[in-house]
Amino acid sequence: MCTGKCSKCIGITLFPLAVCAIVSNILLYFPNGQVLQLSEITDLVWFFHGILGAGILMLLSVILSVLGFAGGAYCVVISSLGLIGGPLCDTGDGEYLYPFRNDTLEDNYLFNQTTWSICKQPENVILWNIVLFSILLVIGVIEAILCFIQVINGLTGFICGTCMKRRKTNISGM
Questions:
Q1: Mean pLDDT by 10-residue block, N- to C-terminus, for the chain (174 residues)?
Q2: Rounded Cα–Cα distance for residues 61 and 150 (Å)
């Protein structure tokens, strides 16, 4: 059996096995379908061997890629909100507030630098926020794209294996 076929067989087999292991471990908490007191459940069930060992850890690479995508998307959303809403700053009366939070998109401080003088303290806070939230926005987009590609790659490899075909070498044609 070539490597690609073996990987495909293993990948197709591991997923249902991991799901079965998780379900089986959960069912161990309910012997004969009954809800028992915690002290009445076999102690080794609490080691989560089916849930963690044979279940989640088998699916971890795909799960982590999905979490990485979610983390990148989260970073994009929060960075966008940070850019749109503007910084918290002292407008000169000693009170810190968000002076740009209720602006419309046309009146947004990002497109009108003359409004930047509203913030007195901390000095250059608007430029600081714009630069750092923009960097985080770009990083989040890149991470989300890379993790999404990894999810697709992992799922493809999981389902199809390596999909490499055996090359036939013609020794006499060398």
A1: 54 74 83 81 76 77 80 91 86 88 78 88 86 91 86 73 56 58
A2: 9
Q: Half-sphere exposure (CA, 13 Å, Cβ side) for 9? A: 6
How many Cα atoms within 13 Å fall on the side-chain side of residue 108?
13
Retrieve residue 11's tokens. Answer: 């990948």
Q: Do 164 and 2 form a contact (C-beta atoms < 8 A)? A: yes
The whole-angstrom separation of Cα 172 and Cα 13 is 40
Largest CA distance in the chain: 88
DSSP class of residue 121 equals B
Structure tokens at 152: 């697709």
Q: Are 68 and 147 in contact (CB under 8 A)?
A: yes
> How far is 76 from 134, CA to CA, in rounded Å?
9
* Half-sphere exposure of residue 12: CA atoms within 13 angstroms, side-chain side: 10
Q: Give the pair of three-digit tokens for residue 94.
A: 């000693």
Go through the chain and tell me how many residues it has: 174
Residue in the structure block whose two tokens are 């795909």: 62
